[in-house]
From TrEMBL:
<protein>
    <submittedName>
        <fullName>Isoquinoline 1-oxidoreductase, alpha subunit</fullName>
    </submittedName>
</protein>
<keyword id="KW-0408">Iron</keyword>
<dbReference type="InterPro" id="IPR001041">
    <property type="entry name" value="2Fe-2S_ferredoxin-type"/>
</dbReference>
<dbReference type="InterPro" id="IPR036010">
    <property type="entry name" value="2Fe-2S_ferredoxin-like_sf"/>
</dbReference>
<keyword id="KW-0001">2Fe-2S</keyword>
<keyword id="KW-0411">Iron-sulfur</keyword>
<dbReference type="Pfam" id="PF01799">
    <property type="entry name" value="Fer2_2"/>
</dbReference>
<dbReference type="Pfam" id="PF00111">
    <property type="entry name" value="Fer2"/>
</dbReference>
<keyword id="KW-0479">Metal-binding</keyword>
<dbReference type="InterPro" id="IPR002888">
    <property type="entry name" value="2Fe-2S-bd"/>
</dbReference>
<dbReference type="GO" id="GO:0046872">
    <property type="term" value="F:metal ion binding"/>
</dbReference>
<dbReference type="InterPro" id="IPR036884">
    <property type="entry name" value="2Fe-2S-bd_dom_sf"/>
</dbReference>
<dbReference type="InterPro" id="IPR006058">
    <property type="entry name" value="2Fe2S_fd_BS"/>
</dbReference>
<dbReference type="InterPro" id="IPR012675">
    <property type="entry name" value="Beta-grasp_dom_sf"/>
</dbReference>
<keyword id="KW-0560">Oxidoreductase</keyword>
<dbReference type="GO" id="GO:0016491">
    <property type="term" value="F:oxidoreductase activity"/>
</dbReference>
<dbReference type="GO" id="GO:0051537">
    <property type="term" value="F:2 iron, 2 sulfur cluster binding"/>
</dbReference>
């Protein structure tokens, strides 16, 4: 099957029931999305399919019919996405394991709501778990990213 991932067409020779996460990591060599739980409960594997955040650990690759965007394709023209920039400025990451999924979920939130409230952030990010507990920094980074996007 052929997928468009991060703007590039790639051929995937896999069982259509294979989770997209494993097709990305093991076949395409795209390592940004992480395996966290395998049951769509933690968010570490979050990617966008057709602009919508999805948990790639449970989405069969054969069901993917739209463009896939991973954290690996988020930066453009050598410039970080505003969410990535805000993550750095707010020093969000500690261990960093969950951050790809956190960032991809935050990007989708800001694509939908340009100036989210704390409640909007909690609702959007609630399914993304961080063992290090960087939630206050995540919220601050999302607010900073909203400002960066507004000024861009």
């Amino acid at each position: 099957m052929r997928l468009t991932v991060n703007g590039k067409a790639i051929d995937i020779d896999a069982d259509p029931e294979m989770p997209l996460l494993w097709a990305l990591r093991d076949i395409a060599g795209i390592l940004g999305p992480k395996f966290g739980c395998g049951i769509a409960a933690c968010g570490a594997c979050t990617v966008h399919v057709g602009g919508v955040p999805v948990r790639s650990c449970v989405l069969p690759v054969g069901d993917v019919e739209d463009n896939v965007l991973t954290i690996d394709g988020l930066a453009q023209d050598g410039r970080l996405h505003p969410v990535q920039q805000a993550w750095l400025e707010e020093q969000v990451a500690q261990c960093g394991y969950c951050q790809a999924g956190q960032i991809m979920t935050a990007v989708a939130l800001l694509d939908e709501i340009s100036d989210p409230t704390d409640e909007d952030i909690d609702n959007a990010m609630g399914g993304n778990l961080c063992r290090c507990g960087t939630y206050p920094r995540i919220r601050a980074a999302i607010k900073r990213a909203a400002s960066l996007k507004a000024g861009a």
